[in-house]
Design goal:
Elements (H helix, E strand, L loop, with lengths): L2 H12 L9 E4 L5 E4 L1 H21 L8 E4 L10 E4 L7 E9 L8 E4 L8 E4 L12 E9 L7 E9 L1
Parallel strand pairs: 7-9
Antiparallel strand pairs: 1-2, 3-4, 4-9, 5-6, 5-8, 6-7, 8-9
Length: about 160
Amino acid sequence: MNLWFTRSMEKEEKKEPGTASPLHEFKTAGGSSIKLSKNVLTFFVGAAVVGVLVGYLFSPRGAASGLTTMNSSTGSSGSNAEGSNDLSTFKDTAEGTLQNGGIDGEGQYHLVRPGGDSQNVYLVSSVVDLSKYVGKKIKVWGQTQSAQKAGWLMDVGRVQAL
């Protein structure tokens, strides 16, 4: 048997019943013991609870996330706009008539603008459902993305029907 295990058994046998210590001893690999008191355990549990509460309080929920929908009755300008109000991220704008289809796998939709196909803006969006605007004249706010085939590829964060 292991020498450490036999010494541990001898200590257990020498203790009298009912004399349990309020501290729990943990044996390390070197044979020394670490005592974990109730205060230390309480501190770690308390720190975990405080961490969860702080995370919940600072997590984005609802309107705090920056995503809102404005309509003609609630919008300040009386326009119908949908998407993010973060215009520092979505600073590029374009106007045109929205049509289905991208170009060679880039974009799901495109804006038809005056000047021919070379002026089209190809669009994707993870924020706004663009399918509601197909065939309508709209203004979009977005972030320009790099593209291989599209002359202008934009990730749309906000859309307004014109």
